[in-house]
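Sample intake sheet
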Amino acid sequence: MSKRMKVWTLIILMSMFFTAPSLAADEVSLLKDLTAVIALLGKPCGEVVRATRLKDNDHIATCRNGIRYRVFVNAEGRVIAQKQ
């Protein structure tokens, strides 16, 4: 393997090593945000344990108690949590 190829391989491996923790941190932050939104809207949830992104500002949140909510921003700009 040439020296240039070794350097590029090292760069790619290092970038994967450092970006994985930041993606995990983003997911934890999203779960906390969705938990707060659902609680502020007065819906029973407790804690969001999984979130699936449908599109921008539109997620399916799964709560620890098994209830699923679609959390999105409607046309008027209000945040809505619909039980699924």
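Comment: The chain has one domain: 3-83. DSSP finds one helix and four strands in the chain.
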